[in-house]
Task: inverse folding
């Protein structure tokens, strides 16, 4: 699983060169997983499949973004003889005021078994926090 995430991360980095130019009439949301060995993907905007798993681009106004976050839980958070536990989670963040031409960043991480994600504006101010929408072991 770790090799899969590392390969996916490298492919995402290579794919960044191929990202489209942001539409100035829409808001752009970059995705940034917090630690290494994790993956963060765009899934849905307002219950419709995301156009690209590497970012969100939305019209101004209110939207709900759903992401997939995959991460390993350190054995120290599980038990003395445990192996790392891989989690595959969905998180949902709502924001009422996306602005045209603005760039936002959705950053994800975890505390033990619990995933988290925060939405930042261009000034690095937290403007939204995600709610877990379900997790499973992988």
Result:
């Amino acid at each position: 699983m770790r090799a899969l995430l590392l390969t996916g991360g490298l492919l995402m980095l290579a794919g960044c060169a191929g990202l489209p130019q942001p539409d100035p009439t829409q808001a752009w949301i970059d995705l940034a997983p917090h630690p290494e060995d994790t993956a963060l993907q765009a899934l849905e905007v307002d219950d419709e499949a995301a156009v690209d798993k590497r970012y969100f681009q939305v019209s101004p106004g209110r939207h709900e973004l759903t992401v997939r976050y995959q991460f390993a839980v350190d054995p120290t958070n599980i038990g003395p003889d445990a192996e790392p536990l891989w989690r595959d989670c969905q998180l949902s963040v709502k924001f009422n005021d996306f602005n045209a031409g603005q760039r936002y960043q959705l950053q994800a991480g975890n505390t033990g078994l619990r995933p988290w994600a925060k939405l930042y504006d261009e000034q690095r101010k937290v403007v939204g926090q995600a709610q877990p929408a379900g997790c499973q072991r992988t």
Observations:
- The longest strand covers residues 85-98.
- Strands lie at 27-33, 39-45, 48-49, 55-58, 61-73, 85-98, 103-111, 114-120, 126-129, 131-137.
- The radius of gyration is 15 Å.
- Residues 3-7, 10-16 have pLDDT under 50 and may be disordered.
